[in-house]
From TrEMBL:
Species in which this protein is naturally found: Bucco capensis
Chief location bin: cytoplasm
PROSITE patterns in UniProt: GLOBIN (PS01033)
Protein name (record): Myoglobin
Function: Monomeric heme protein which primary function is to store oxygen and facilitate its diffusion within muscle tissues. Reversibly binds oxygen through a pentacoordinated heme iron and enables its timely and efficient release as needed during periods of heightened demand. Depending on the oxidative conditions of tissues and cells, and in addition to its ability to bind oxygen, it also has a nitrite reductase activity whereby it regulates the production of bioactive nitric oxide. Involved in oxygen transport from the lung to the various peripheral tissues.
Record keywords, A-Z: Cytoplasm, Heme, Iron, Metal-binding, Muscle protein, Oxidoreductase, Oxygen transport, Transport
Sequence similarity: Belongs to the globin family.
Length: 154
């Protein structure tokens, strides 16, 4: 269904968890992407700029990767601000999903990969409670993105 069921307490704790990692959006966004590209090298094939980069060090210095990391984090930030408003949340998720499905042709499994790496980073930096309070958000994001893919006949 397209409605989300976050209690007020869940919304607050998810936002609290997200704020911790979003404070350093560029650094953390870069870390997440570099980890994705090194642990799942096939994901690099979607990004023409990054194809030739093999070392994590080289990736960390890339303006393209920093820029995209920031973009990913700011998109998630927009979603986090609207956890208590399904319509606004879907207003962000739907166009994003459509673009990734139809124009960029990104395999939707990559959304799960990136979300899992974000959760992993949260746990490393801020502990298990932080991760736990954000898990439902990542599930929600991935579920809705997958629904968009189904709608466009992926």
């Amino acid at each position: 269904s397209s409605t989300m069921s976050f209690s007020e307490a869940e919304v607050q704790s998810a936002r609290g968890a997200w704020e911790k990692i979003y404070v350093d959006a560029e650094d953390n966004g870069t870390t997440v992407l570099v980890r994705m590209f090194t642990e799942h090298p096939d994901t690099k094939s979607y990004f023409t700029h990054f194809k030739g980069m093999d070392s994590a060090e080289e990736m960390k210095q890339s303006e393209h990767i920093k820029g995209h990391g920031k973009k990913v984090f700011s998109a998630i930030n927009d979603m986090v601000q609207h956890l208590d408003n399904s319509e606004a949340f879907l207003g962000i998720v739907n166009p994003l999903g459509k673009k990734h499905a139809t124009q960029l042709k990104i395999d939707p499994k990559n959304f799960r990969i990136i979300c899992d790496i974000i959760l992993q980073l949260m746990e490393e930096k801020f502990g298990g409670d932080c991760k736990a309070s954000f898990e439902k958000v990542t599930n929600e994001i991935c579920t809705h993105l997958n629904n968009v893919y189904k709608e466009v006949g992926w």
